[in-house]
Amino acid sequence: MTVQRQERNGFGRQIALIAASIILAAAIGVCLCLAPVVRATTTERVVAARFSGLAIDGFDPVAYFVQNQAVLGLPDYEASQAGAVWRFHNEGNRASFLAHPEVYAPQFGGYDPVDVARGVTFAGNPNFFVVVGQRLYLFGLEAHRDAFTAHPEHFLPEARERWPQLEQTLSQ
Hints:
There is one protein chain. By secondary structure, the protein is of the alpha+beta class. It folds into 2 domains: 1-39; 56-169, no CATH class. It contains 8 helices and 4 strands. It has a two-stranded antiparallel sheet. Strands 3-4 form a two-stranded antiparallel ribbon. The chain starts with a helix and ends with a helix.
């Protein structure tokens, strides 16, 4: 995670608060047992890298539509949306995404729709993708992508039905 993103998310203040608490406790002779501070920097409702907070491993979601391939985004073109940091290959892709994130963001938060249809969440791999009906789908396994591509009408109704309940079980 970049220093700027850490500052935006308040990590510096948390560290300073913990350090001040430890010093104060030591000064007055109190044993201070600190539980680990756990703070999610991303949301699990959108597949994002745990430590960097990058959605879909930093791949440009618009490039799947424009170039029909997985293209890594650049740090110069970032945007925050849905609790994650998205990267883009150029400013035009960034602007398109910000204007219509519901179109360009992967469906089901980037989770594999075949697994969602089965009632489980499994993160999709940005390299295993397909665009169907003007929507982007990512898959955890190449075999899932192939099965979905052959019969999207078999998987989509069940996945759409189960997604709202699965989404509620994911942390915010």
